[in-house]
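Hi there. Long-time user, first ticket. I'm pasting a complex I've been working with (about 228 residues overall). I'd like to know whether the download I got is complete or cut off, because the file seemed smaller than I expected. Thanks.
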Amino acid sequence: EVQLLESGGGLVQPGGSLRLSCAASGFTFSSYAMTWVRQAPGKGLEWVSSISGSGGSTYYVDSVKGRFTISRDTSKNTLYLQMNSLRAEDTALYYCAKLSGLAAWDPFTAWGQGTTVTVSS
Amino acid sequence: DIQMTQSPSSLSASVGDRVTITCQASQDISNYLNWYQQKPGKAPNLLIYHASNLETGVPSRFSGSGSGTDFTFTISSLQPEDIATYYCQQYDNLPITFGQGTRLEIK
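Hi, the file is complete. Here it is re-exported in full:
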């Protein structure tokens, strides 16, 4: 059974940093692209970033480019999202998700339960 | 960016009703369109991929159709457990974008 467990969320001041983690199990981690999707309180879904199965290709929504970095550690079966220069508008529930294949824009076939990031002074 | 417009934004229907949600893309996305269900307080769940393919384990009362810019999601006979918000998503071009969601309620 595929399991994705996010951690690392919390309360941070504007301009601060956080690193989110997503521990994966139940599948061959290196064989699938992974993604982060966020959902602001009471709002819809917003794609944030994706990484290919090899980790060699990464993609970001414009609003986080230059501030967020996605990465993966195959030895630990873990996906990361390093978030720097955080803004109030980054406040959201952050989900990690597994894609259906190696490509960074395949359907999102499994999701974690999310970790909450709150950016506030 | 490709804009995805869902209609309606909210919908109230009775158990057993046929429910239809539409999604329109701002440009041709072929059939690179998925549908997700998000129940209250839960993570989203993939129901339909590539416009019309039913994800494994998803009940057959759910279906999708369309190509190009116009897509339809249908529940053939609404069940109480279908209370959720439904999102379309295009994956033809980056950035991947979602529709604004359709909140489905039971009358």
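A couple of notes from our side: The interface with chain B takes residues 35, 37, 44-47, 50, 59, 61-62, 95, 100, 105-109, 111-114 of chain A (CB under 8 Å). The first strand of chain A starts at residue 3 and ends at 7.
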